[in-house]
Design a protein that fits this description.
Strand content: 15-25%
CATH topology of the largest domain: Spore Coat Polysaccharide Biosynthesis Protein SpsA, Chain A
Distance between the termini: 29 Å
Structural class: alpha/beta
CATH class of the largest domain: Alpha Beta
Number of strands: 12
CATH superfamily of the largest domain: Spore Coat Polysaccharide Biosynthesis Protein SpsA, Chain A
Shape: globular
Largest sheet: 10 strands, mixed
C-alpha cells in the first residue's frame, strides 16, 4: 500500500447495485467527515451502468473498473492496495453512511490503539436495529441456528447461535466478529494481518479476517456512537439461489481452512439438516397458506440447490 496521505479511505465494491451505490455515495458527498477522505469504488463488471453513473455523478471518486466479477474479497483487496488512508472503511454499496459516522469511528481508533477493526451501530431502513456483532462459529452455535433453537430461545446466550441477539448493541464492546457490511480497519492491522481472504469469493471473509485479526493480537470492537443504515439483502434478493450457493461454498471453505476434517464433516451434516428442515417447512407452508406459495417456492428452490451442492460438491457461484 502507498504511504498514508489522507485520514480515511472509503472502499466500496459494487456488482449490479447502481441505485444503491448512488445513494451510498450521495450520503458521503452530502455529509463528509471533518477529516480528509478519499473514496474508491470497484465496479465488478456490473454491465448495468454502474461505472458510468459513478463517472458522471461523482467525478471525485476513484473508479476502478474490473473486466470480470472478482468477488467481494478480491475486489476490496484491489482497492485496498491503492488506498492512501490511515484508516480504511470497507462499506457495502447498500449502506447509507449517516453524518458523523466516519469521524466517530476514526476517533475511536485514535483513542484505542489496540483495536484493529471497529464497526458502527447499523440500522435497518425502518430504523430498527440490525445485529452486526457475532461470535466465532462453532458446531453448537451453528446447530442452534439450523434447528431453530436460536429463534425459539431468542435472547438466551447459550442458544443464540453466532448472532449476539442477547447483546442490545447499546455500548462499546469487543466482539469476536463484525459483519462485513461496514467496518473501519487500521492500516497497521492490514499490514500485520494481511488482506481479505481471496479464496472466499464472497461471504465468510469477515469471519476469517476477524479471526486472523484476533490471532495477530489486534482487537475487534463495536462502537454505537457511529451509525449507518444498511438495506440488508437488497442487492442479493434478485438472485436468491446464486447467493445462497455462494454463502454455502464460502462457509465450507472457512471451516476447511480453520477446523479439523471431523469438524468440516460436522458442519456439512448440520447444513444438510438445516436445508432438509427448511425445504420441508416451506413445502408444508405452501399447502397451509396458498398466498405464500411464491415465497415458499423460492425457499424450496434455494434449499434444493444447496442440498444438491452439499451432496455433489458442485457449487458453481463465481460466474
Amino acid at each position: 500500500m502507498p504511504p498514508p496521505t489522507v485520514d480515511i479511505s472509503v472502499v466500496i465494491v459494487a456488482w449490479k447495485a447502481k441505485r444503491y451505490l448512488e445513494l451510498c455515495l450521495d450520503s458521503l458527498e452530502k455529509a463528509p467527515p471533518r477529516r480528509s477522505m478519499e473514496i474508491l469504488v470497484v465496479d465488478n463488471a456490473s454491465a448495468d451502468g454502474t461505472a458510468e453513473m459513478v463517472e458522471t455523478r461523482f467525478p471525485k471518486v476513484r473508479l476502478i473498473r474490473s473486466d470480470e466479477n472478482l468477488g467481494f474479497a478480491k475486489g476490496n483487496n484491489l482497492a485496498i492496495r491503492q488506498c492512501q488512508g490511515r484508516y480504511i472503511a470497507l462499506v457495502n454499496p447498500d449502506v447509507i453512511v449517516l453524518p458523523g459516522c466516519l469521524d466517530a469511528l476514526s476517533d475511536f481508533l485514535d483513542s484505542n490503539p489496540k483495536v484493529g477493526n471497529v464497526g458502527p451501530r447499523v440500522l435497518n431502513p425502518d430504523g430498527s436495529l440490525q445485529e452486526t456483532c457475532r461470535r466465532h462459529p462453532t458446531l453448537w452455535n451453528n446447530f442452534c441456528e439450523a434447528t431453530g433453537l436460536a429463534g425459539a430461545f431468542k435472547g438466551r446466550r447459550f442458544f443464540s447461535g453466532q448472532h449476539m441477539t442477547y447483546f442490545p448493541h447499546d455500548r462499546v464492546l469487543t466482539v469476536d466478529v463484525l459483519v462485513g457490511c461496514f467496518s473501519m480497519i487500521r492500516r497497521e492491522a492490514f499490514e500485520a494481518v494481511g488482506l481479505l481472504a481471496e479464496d472466499l469469493f464472497m461471504y465468510g471473509d469477515d469471519i476469517d479476517w476477524c479471526l486472523r485479526c484476533w490471532n495477530a493480537g489486534w482487537q475487534v470492537a463495536f462502537c454505537p456512537s457511529a451509525q449507518a443504515i444498511h438495506d440488508q439483502g437488497s442487492t442479493t434478493a434478485p438472485y436468491p439461489v446464486r447467493f445462497a450457493l455462494a454463502q454455502q461454498r464460502s462457509r465450507i471453505q472457512y471451516w476447511t481452512k480453520h477446523h479439523s476434517p471431523l469438524a468440516v464433516l460436522g458442519i456439512r451434516c448440520i447444513m444438510l439438516l438445516h436445508h432438509l428442515l427448511r425445504y420441508t417447512a416451506a413445502a408444508l407452508s405452501s399447502l397451509a397458506r396458498p398466498k405464500d406459495k411464491a415465497r415458499c417456492r423460492v425457499k424450496r428452490q434455494v434449499s434444493s440447490a444447496c442440498l444438491r451442492g452439499l451432496v455433489t460438491g458442485n457449487v458453481p457461484v463465481n460466474s
